[in-house]
Design a protein that fits this description.
- It contains two helices and no strands.
- The protein has 54 residues and is mainly alpha-helical.
- The longest helix has 24 residues.
- It is elongated.
Amino acid sequence: MAIQNFIRDHWRIEDNSHWILDNFFKEDANQTKEKNSVKNYAAMRRMALNQWNL
């Protein structure tokens, strides 16, 4: 039972994180094409999200 709760909690956190990234940062609508730019913008959005969660 404990492993099931752990897995559910993990996915709940992941779902909340992706919801915030999509709704506030419009991550799904991002049209960046260059390989390094995609990674850099994703890292910047996640850093902003982490700062918000502090």
